[in-house]
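Q: I'm writing up a methods section and want to include an example of the input and output format. Could you take the sequence below and give the corresponding predicted structure tokens, formatted cleanly so I can copy it straight into the document?
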Amino acid sequence: MGYFKNITLSNFRNFENFNLDFFKTCNVFYGKNGSGKTNLLEALSLFTKGRGIRKESISNIIKKNSNNFIVKSDFNSFDINYNLTVESIQRNKRKIKSLNINNDSSKETIDNFYKVVPFLYFMPENERLFLSSPSNRRNFIDRFIFVHSHNYNNLINNYNKNLLERSNLISANQYDITWIKKIERNISEYALEIYFLREKQTKVLVKYLNYFLGKFNINYNVITRLVDKNYNTNLSIDNFANLLEQNRQEDSLLGGSKIGPHKSDYIFYVNNDFLVSQLSTGQQKTLILLIYLSQCKYLIDDLNIQPILLLDEICSHLDDINRKILLTLVESFNLQVFMTGTTKNLFSFLSTKTNFCNITD
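A: Here is the clean output for your methods example:
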């Protein structure tokens, strides 16, 4: 099991100088709005690939009137200690994130460490998963895939890069046929891999989601349907490339590509015919929590991966069943969990082993 022992912030968001020790189990940050609870989760999330849970530009994370931020932490995994420092540095006239691990900032060391610290995080906007846009649902599934497939981000980036190159070429209407075919074949290969990984992820979630629905005596099943008129399981790379070729003229007028995984959607149904989005707010929250519970079970039981959970403002719409589900999520897997909320009493259902931190004070 991996866990953060502590954190020290310097000129990070609203914190000038701040430090805190953690329990290896459950940690709750509570306090009034604007006190910096989510900022602490964001600081932790910077110890993995990317720009953190908010995906904010690095320059905006630095405390006002300061030149750079520094975040330090000690992390332990299987009795191996990692001394971590993440900070903002100036490069080519812009601020970027720099990560140092045991005084080593080599790409190999950092890539290996990213595999040691898989984050699974909940943000308040996730509660509207079933009501939000298709892109939000795609991104939600993609983040779940990234927890266990660290090259998935490169796959998405390569797909988007080739889409953009194709769009620029066909818009100019002057291109080498051999080259455009090569790009379209690249897009096709990336697209089918993305479809495959998303389908695999959603199948796993539905499998464990329905398992937990039964465990909590919730009397319905959930399925997902891929909404994408151009995709089927028999679609080949050649078929997809031919579709791209046929759509060149239309795509040159509209921009981008009218087909591909960037256009698909995943719709959730109850008992095969009733949209999950039509359930009550509390019932939708139940399914969201069960999805996180399902992802944890998949990561731990199937892949031997123990994620660190970052759960921001998790306690809205918590009826008795949702409290039981959240308690199960927190206590069943021997994971380090960080949660935020405005008051301590929101978390009264947690065990006495929880580390409560009043951020306001």
